[in-house]
Write a structure and sequence with these properties.
Strand order of the largest sheet: 1-2-3-4-5
Shape: elongated
CATH class of the largest domain: Mainly Alpha
Largest sheet: 5 strands, mixed
Radius of gyration: 32 Å
Structural class: alpha+beta
Helix content: 40-55%
Distance between the termini: 96 Å
């Protein structure tokens, strides 16, 4: 039944019509009154604009509690939500703060990331970003985030500010998977500070002195760990945590949890020169019965915990990786093979067709070329 409703007519509907009757409002499409056994209620029926073509029924309220005018106004609001693709029947969850979003990110993704990576993220979230820790993410708009980046830049420097924004961006994107958030403000508003590439690679001038420093190092286990990073390009954690059980009889090392987590695990053939030095380390540490190639009796992990610059060897651990990659290019190794050796994430569809396990021979040949290019300076 369709009629032009008035407030007076609405007040009498329950008395004049049997239960189950529906009276449609001619003024507001989709609005109707459903008569029950004891009362009548306003109901809006509409389609959600989410591509599914679904119709939903939304109860607005009883006619003896909600006026006709209020029911029409509420209907207009609900129809607007339906056009946006929202389902008003589903209550919106509260938007998390940066602190809450970070805790969830650490809990859900922490197992996939290296401990050092989690520590780095936490340092940025609880450090430079601490002033906005308890602000809901949807309140951190473009202007607020841009101003925050500029403030951190002035106080902590360009690299720290950029790192804080990268951490914020990752946590925000993770929260956006389960909450309706605006587009990431870092992507839309922040112009990252220019970062000069670090000139860490040792060349023909620096390598002879670096070799002399390694040969003079009293701690031979630590010296061989430095050598491993230099001759393989392994990251510090991957070198320090090497286990004998992960090094097979053919000299191929399995790296179970590199940067990017277990999904990025890979096998890496080691050069013969390095294998000979590792054998000496094995003999030297045989009495410790440690599963680690580079054991440490004073660390919680059981292996060397940290490699850092010292007066004895004033080079950054990641500088070894820079040197390795530079030496690889100097030795004539192609970029695709270098990408495999360094376990970088390759770009392009073609890489999806490559089975890495079949390329050990090619990688071994490249390793020997690179090793020769570095050791000739010793």
């Amino acid at each position: 039944m369709t009629t032009k409703l008035t407030q007076g007519a609405v007040n009498k509907l329950a008395e004049e019509h049997p239960a189950g009757t529906q009276i449609y409002d001619t003024e507001t499409a989709g609005l109707r009154i459903v008569v029950g056994s004891k009362s009548a209620s306003y109901k809006l029926v509409g389609r959600i604009n989410d591509g599914s073509g679904r119709y939903v029924s939304l109860i607005i309220g009883r006619t003896d509690e909600v006026s006709l005018r209020t029911a029409r106004e509420r209907s207009a609001e609900l129809k607007l939500a339906l056009r946006r693709g929202d389902d008003p029947r589903r209550p919106k969850g509260s938007v998390p703060s940066l602190r809450t979003a970070w805790e969830r990110y650490r809990t859900t993704r922490g197992a996939e990331l290296q401990e050092s990576t989690v520590t780095w993220y936490e340092g940025k979230i609880l450090g430079p970003l601490k002033t906005v820790l308890d602000v809901p993410l949807d309140k951190l708009d473009r202007e607020a985030v841009r101003a925050l980046h500029e403030k951190i830049t002035k106080k902590n420097g360009s690299y720290c500010a950029n790192g804080a924004m990268r951490a914020f961006k990752a946590v925000y994107n993770d929260a956006a998977r389960s909450h309706d958030l605006p587009p990431n403000p870092v992507s839309r508003a922040v112009r990252m500070n220019k970062e000069a590439p670090r000139k860490w690679a040792l060349g023909a001038e620096g390598l002879p002195e670096a070799w002399r420093q390694l040969d003079a190092m009293e701690d031979r286990i630590r010296a061989t760990c430095w050598m491993t990073m230099l001759l393989t390009g392994l990251r510090s954690h991957d070198a320090r945590s090497m286990r004998w059980e992960h090094l097979d009889e053919d000299g191929v090392l399995f790296v179970p949890s590199p940067k990017g987590g277990k999904d990025r695990a890979f096998h890496l053939p080691l050069p013969r020169y390095l294998l000979q030095n590792l054998e000496m380390v094995k003999q030297q540490t045989s009495g410790l019965a440690s599963p680690f190639v580079f054991p440490s009796l004073n660390s919680k992990s059981g292996h060397i915990e940290e490699m850092r610059r010292t007066a004895e060897f004033p080079h950054a651990p990641h500088g070894m990786r820079h040197t390795y990659r530079t030496a690889a290019l100097e030795a004539g190794v192609d970029m695709q093979t270098i990408t495999l050796l360094m376990n970088h994430r390759p770009a392009g569809v073609t890489w999806g067709y490559i089975t890495r396990a079949h390329l050990v021979g090619t990688m071994r040949e490249a390793q020997e070329l690179i090793c020769a290019a570095i050791t000739r300076h010793r």
